[in-house]
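Supplementary Note 2. Why include the ligand at all?

Several targets in our set were suspected to adopt different conformations when bound, so apo predictions alone were not considered sufficient. For every target with a known small-molecule partner we therefore ran a joint prediction. The input for pyridoxal-5'-phosphate is given below.
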Amino acid sequence: MTTTPEFSASFTQNEAARTDQERAAILADPGFGNHFTDHMFLSEWTVDGGWADPRVVPYGPLQLDPAAAVLHYAQEVFEGLKAYAHADGSVWAFRPEANGARLGRSAARLALPELPVEWFLGSIRALIAADRDWVPSGEERSLYLRPFMFASEVFLGVRPAHHVTYSVIASPAGAYFSGGVKPVSIWLSENYARAAAGGTGAAKCGGNYAAGLLPQQEAFEHGCEQVAFLDAAEHRWVEELGGMNLYFVRSDGSVVTPELSGSILEGITRDSILTLAADLGHGVTERKVSIDEWQGGVASGEITEVFACGTAAVVTPVGRLAWNGGEVDASNGEMGPVTAAIRSALVDIQYGRAEDRHGWMTRMV
Ligand code: PLP
Ligand code: COI
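The joint prediction is reproduced in C-alpha cell form.
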C-alpha cells in the first residue's frame, strides 16, 4: 500500500521556447489541436511507489519502448478542458474538478490507477503557470488542456500495467470546426455502434475514438461533418456524436437530452447545460430519445433546434441529419435562438463576462 504525497511539481525551463514573435503568430490563428505550448507535465506511477516525480518539463516527444502495453492493448484514458483568459489578465479553468473526477472514473474502468483530484488540479495549474503566455485572448479563444494517462509498462501479457505515465499537454485553440460557429451536418451511423452496455462508452478512453473513425469516414463520404450513434442493442435510441453530446429543443421551448445510458460519455458541458437551460426558464428533461423522434420531429416542426455540446465544440448547432435514404434539416443554415441563448449563457461565464453563480470557474493563475 502506497500513499500519494502532497502535490508539488518541479520545473525545467524549455531553453528552446518559441520567441514572442513566433508565439504571437500561432496565437493569431491557432485552429484546433495544431499547436502545443513550450512545456508539458509528466509523472509516473508504479505499483510499489505510487505517483512520483511530478514535473513540468520542455514539451517534446516521449520515449516509448515498442513493447509498451498501451501500443498493444490501448490501456489509456484522457480528458479535455479549457482555460480562459479574463479581461483582468487572470486565467480560469471551467469545472476542472469535474474533469478530474471523470478521469478517475475512466481510469477505474480501464484498470488504471487513481490519480488524486488534487494532483489533477495541481498538474494543470503548474502547466498553465509555466505557459501563461500561451493562453490566447479573444472571442472563441482558449487554452485547451489534454491530460492523459497510459500503460507504459514494457510487457506483452494481458493484465493491468504496473507502470503508468500521466501527462498534460496544452494547445492554444480557436473554434473546433474550421467554419466557425455554424450548423454542422450529421451522418447517422446505422451499421456501427460507438459503445455497448457494459463496454467503455462512459469512459473517456482512446479506444472509443478509434472505433468511431470508420463511421466518421463514412460521414465524410456522405458529405457530413460528424457522425451520430444509436444504442448498440436496439439501434433505436440516440446516444451521442463521436465527440459531443446532443440536445433537442422542442416547439414548446423545452429542451431534451438523451439520458445517460452507461454507454454515453457524461459530458461536463451537457451537465452544465441542464442547469443553464433551467436558469433560462426552459423545461429540461433527460430521457430516451428515439431516432424516429429526431427524424420525425424535425420534419413535423415538433423539434425546432438541435445542438451538440462538448468542451472542444462548446455549443454547436446541428443542421442536416442524413441517413441511407433520407435527410432532415433543423437549422435553416443558422443557429437557432434557444441554442444561441444557451451558448451565450455558457461562454459568458467561461470568459468572465457573466456572474459565476454556480461556482464553476477555478482560478489558475
Ligand atoms: N461525448 C464524447 C464522446 C466526447 O468525446 C466529449 C468530449 O469531451 C463529450 C461527449 C462532451 O464532454 P465534455 O462536455 O465534458 O467535453
Ligand atoms: C473534447 O471536447 O474535449 C473532446 O474530447 C472532443 C474531441 C476533441 C475528442
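The two ends are 34 Å apart (CA to CA). The mean pLDDT is 96. Comparable summaries for the other entries are listed in the accompanying table.
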